[in-house]
Each structure stands twice: as structure tokens, then as C-alpha cells.
Amino acid sequence: MSKKMEDFVVQSYQKEENMMILVFAQWCINHDLDPESLYLKAYPDQAENQALKDALALTVPKEEAGEVPDETLLGVLSLFGNDDLAFIVTQEIARRGEKKK
Length: 101
Fold this sequence. Notes:
Blueprint: H1 3-30, H2 35-42, H3 50-58, H4 70-79, H5 83-100
Helix pairs in contact: 1-3, 1-4, 2-5, 4-5
């Protein structure tokens, strides 16, 4: 693979990963959850995550945001192998379900 092609693949992956992080952050905002604390529960060794901070700057208030379905977020996290974060998200979804009862 040429260096140019390799760089393109890496850049494409990073853009998609940033979109995944934005979807996660907006989902958290939409459900009155703190994205940084949830992320830290999943990845305690990554306290300073610049990509998450960048994504938070792009989120909008939940009143202005479109819905981010739980299944969409879990699917996107799965695509990127973020099983630990998906587990934490699943716990929050279950907690939300218990509150409704």
C-alpha cells in the first residue's frame, strides 16, 4: 500500500472515530449524563481524552438535538470495538428504564 493510500485510510478512520465520539457525547447530553464521567468509568486510564473534549465542543443542547437512538449508539460503539464503553452505556440505559417504572 502506498504511503498516500495509508495516510488516507488513517485519516478516514480518525474522522469516523471522531463521529462515533460525537454521537456518544450527544447521546449523553440528550439523556442528562456527563460524557466525561461515563467515559472515565469505561476507560479509567484515559482521564484526558482530547477527542472527547473536541466532540463536546460540537454538541448542542438536548432541546436542539435530534434523537440519538440507544441502538444506534451501541451499534457505532460496537463497530469501533468500544465494548467497555458500550457496557457502561447499557448500564445507563437499564438505569433509565428502572426510573420510568
